Amino acid sequence: MTDKTESSSDKLLRAAIELIAEKGYNGVSTKEIAAAAGVNEVTLFRNFGTKLQLLEAAFHRFHYGDEMTKLFQEKLVWDLHTDLLLIGRTYHEIMNRNRKMLQIAVKESNIIVGFREKVNKHPRILKELLTNYFQTMHDQGKLIDTNMELQALSFMWMNHGAFMTSLSAEPTFANVSLEAFIQESVRTFTRALTP
């Protein structure tokens, strides 16, 4: 259900995600996307040019790069445990909110030429943010001497693996809550990286 104040561009982005997740990239037309958004097809072409450009815009608009950048700029308190909890929880909140979009990325990235590069933009942003954060924590004497980039990747891959596991129809580890996983993994990271 879309908000009445939502722009036609946002309606098109959301409609594209919904329909492509349901029918696949090649299974949905620009006419269907426009109809689902309640606009005409000309509006889609005027705002985005092509179906691929529309999908790329949806990924850029709703993926986590911008939100994570803002979090790192405004919400960190420079306490490793507290910050990693916030980063982990925010990551999973965004990923779960965008489940359909991420299912498209997994299913369609090999089909749509050049799309994988666009999809990978956001993890590269997060890796840079985490690496810089770990380096600053080290410079403040709050983190051991380690390979900051590898620690950033380890934290990301651990959380991404947990998210990808949750995408399956039947949970593999139904007896472990996401919150328990986040708390325990952050506790382990904090213990390992604190001088």
TrEMBL record:
InterPro entries: Homeodomain-like_sf, HTH-type_TetR-like_transc_reg, HTH_TetR. The keyword Cell inner membrane does not apply. The keyword Nucleotide-binding does not apply. Pfam families: TetR_N. Residues 29-48 bind DNA. Residues 6-66 form the HTH tetR-type domain. Keywords: DNA-binding. It comes from the Bacteria. This is TetR/AcrR family transcriptional regulator.
